[in-house]
Give the backbone structure.
Amino acid sequence: MRISEMVGQVAAWHLVTFPEASAKDIAEKMLEEVLELQSAHGDAEVAEELADVVLCAFALAGRGGLDLESALASKFEVNKARAHAGRWA
Ligand SMILES: [Mg+2]
């Protein structure tokens, strides 16, 4: 499944399940999930929390009509070309 297809499916589910959620609400949930990821232990828990973060990103992108797949590809090229001094993105 392409990223764009997954974004569409997640956004459709999210819109039905959380119809009142704003972009800010989704971003706040994503931050909560990042904090859960930060304190996760073991591969299974880390993968699960990372999936939660990505699913929030997919919901945010899909509900906002953003082309996340293209943005990922173009931003990755930008990051690869950037001179880094101890940090990335
Ligand atoms: Mg979680």
Remarks:
- The helical segments are 3-17, 23-38, 42-63, 68-81.
